[in-house]
Each structure stands twice: as C-alpha cells, then as structure tokens.
Amino acid sequence: MKPLFAMDLMGGRTVRLRKGDFHEVTVYSDDPPGMIRDMVRRGARDFHIIDLDGARTGTPAHGEIIREIRGIVKGYMEVGGGIRTEEVITYYGDMGIDGVIVGTRALEDPEFLDKLSAFKNIVFGLDLLDGRPMARGWKSAVDRDVPSLLRDAERIGIMAVLCTSIERDGMLTGPDLEGLQRLSEMTRLPLIASGGVSKIDDVRLLKEMDVWAAIIGKAFYEGFIGIEEAMGYAG
Question: What pTM did the predictor assign?
Fold first, then answer.
C-alpha cells in the first residue's frame, strides 16, 4: 500500500479545508515546495496534490509550484483539481505526473469519459456523499449509480479509483471501511482511500483491506500520524 501524503494548494499556500468548504480554511505553509522537501527528507515518498483554485475555476492555477514539487518527489505523485480537458491531462502528463485525477467532467460527460481511454495515467475521482456520487466541488449530485460508473471505468482502462468519503473529509473520524469494502466488491480496479484517516490504526486497517493507496492529510498536519510510522505500512 502507498501512504499518500496530501497537500492542498490555494493562493500559493498549503491549506486544508473542512469538508471541502472554501470558507473553512487552515493555512499550514506559505512555501509548499519547501514543505514537500522537508517531508521527503523525513521519509515521505508518495504524494496527493490538489489545486483547489484549479478546482474552482477549471483551469490549473499552480502549475509552476506543482512542477517544482514534481522535481522534489521521486515516488508516485498524483494531481487533481479542475482537470476537465484532454489538454490539461496532457499538460500534467508531460510534467511527469503519475496519476491525473479526473472527476466532475468524467462523471457528467460520458463522451469525455470514453476519451480517457487514450491515457494510461487517469485516476477516476469518485466523491461519495451518503453513497451518491457528487461533482462540482461536492456541490451537485450526479445522476449515475456507482456500479455503472465503475463498470465504465474498468471498460476504458482507468488506472485507479480515488474514493472520497465527503462526510469524513478533514474530520478525523476514521475511514469509511464499510463503504470501501462495498466498492472493492464492485470493481477489480485499484482503490485509493480518501477521507477520515485519523490515526495509525486507520492506516493499518486500510492496508489489511488491500487498498492500493491511502491518503493521509489532516492527521499528518495536526500531528496525529507521523511520516515514519505511516511509511511502516508502505509496500
């Protein structure tokens, strides 16, 4: 399993949102690349980077910062936030990003979803609220059922599925283990667990569930999970 250390970017800073609410922001650093460099020195290897401003506008807003981070990170690195065109997917691919997270447009536009078969680095962002897929920054429900979305993702060769439990994001309430188990029974695709990780025991349980990767965000920033102990479950 890959422990993916999360970094959300907004206005050139490292921040965290509470349940995705742009009005509930905590700033952790004014120097995101410097913070990544320090985390790598302490043993972090793989990263999950979200361009929050890009998510709001649909256009990458932190391209140069992400490029600088890519130069520091030697492991797996995925990027998300407003990725809604083939051109942006190519932009990040040319930057050397391993996983490009596509959510809203893939959920809302079946034709665009089919076009993703041309790429080998797509992470399908499946954001769930009470079991329903959500789009547009978690503001609107998608009129598709989860099993059919996962079947489409398998058909076009998606690399992995990023499963975010919206009600748990940034809340330190523990991951949605039951929901992840249901998803694992619906698909053969690798799963990335996101939302609620609060202690090292959560990382252990996710590894035992054989998820491909687990995102560690607020629990790291608030000091509940250390890099070294999280990396003890890498493999």
Answer: 0.92
